[in-house]
């Protein structure tokens, strides 16, 4: 899985590369040219590489629980790796900062609503006042009643993207195990964690992304 990871997000997440570009733009609106950015869920290194290429003077602290995925992040970054410090663990293992911005992409749907709220709070605590936080993950409107339809649509998207039918069907089953919340609850969690003005900037079928400010 690790060996093939970097091929996955562009195929499995609608508009993935554009979402990364938008995230970099939103960070840069408030982050200085020499900003220090926290990237939670940095394994694989795709977002680290995209941000490093977009802003040549930014430095990064990337956090991920998987040592193998952090190794892959270092390989993905290549010559850009000198600008990133990689930390194995979760948000509690992240440096205290203060950071000029933070991201958590395709990660928060792996944790419960309560742990998501605590994680968001710990991210905000590590940010400078007014610093941007960009998050994107599975978020489906309507809650449990509409989820089966959206799961089927997501599976159809995977098949249209060239994913083998059996793998597309397996993905539909797998995402049922995730902690997927409706968008209004995701926004409420950001506010509860102390972020202001959570604003939707990205919608890709079953995925949504927000920017909010410490």
N→C terminal distance: 35 Å
Major beta sheet, strand line-up: 3-2-1-4-5-7-6
Low-confidence stretches: none
User: Strand percentage, roughly?
Assistant: 15-25%
Main traits of this protein?
21% strand; 7-stranded mixed sheet; globular; 7 strands; 214 residues
Summarize the structure.
This protein is α/β, with parallel strands linked by helices and 214 residues long.
How does this model look, in words?
This protein is globular. It has 214 residues and is α/β, with parallel strands linked by helices. It is 40% helix and 21% strand.
Explain the layout of strands and helices.
Elements: H1 8-12, H2 16-28, E1 36-40, H3 46-54, E2 59-64, H4 67-77, E3 84-88, E4 101-105, H5 113-125, E5 132-138, H6 147-160, H7 165-174, H8 183-192, E6 196-204, E7 207-213
Parallel strand pairs: 1-2, 1-4, 2-3, 4-5
Antiparallel strand pairs: 5-7, 6-7
Helix pairs in contact: 2-3, 6-7
């Amino acid at each position: 899985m690790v060996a093939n990871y970097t091929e996955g997000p562009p195929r499995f997440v609608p508009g993935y590369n554009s979402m990364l570009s938008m995230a970099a733009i939103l960070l840069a609106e408030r982050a200085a040219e020499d900003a220090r950015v926290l990237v939670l869920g940095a394994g694989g290194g795709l977002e680290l590489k995209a941000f490093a290429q977009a802003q040549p003077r930014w430095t990064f602290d990337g956090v991920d629980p998987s040592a193998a995925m952090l190794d892959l992040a270092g390989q993905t970054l290549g010559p850009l790796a000198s600008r990133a410090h990689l930390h194995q663990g979760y948000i509690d293992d992240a440096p205290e900062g203060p950071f000029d911005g933070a991201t958590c992409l395709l990660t928060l749907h792996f944790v419960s609503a309560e742990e998501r709220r605590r994680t968001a709070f710990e991210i905000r605590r590590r940010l400078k006042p007014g610093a941007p936080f960009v998050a994107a993950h599975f978020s489906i409107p309507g809650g449990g009643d509409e989820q089966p339809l959206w799961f089927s649509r997501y599976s159809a998207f995977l098949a249209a993207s060239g994913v083998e039918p059996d793998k597309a069907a397996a993905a539909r089953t797998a995402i049922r195990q995730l902690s997927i919340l409706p968008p209004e609850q995701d926004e409420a969690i950001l506010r509860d964690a102390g972020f202001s003005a959570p604003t939707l900037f990205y919608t890709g079928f079953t995925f949504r992304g927000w920017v909010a400010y410490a």
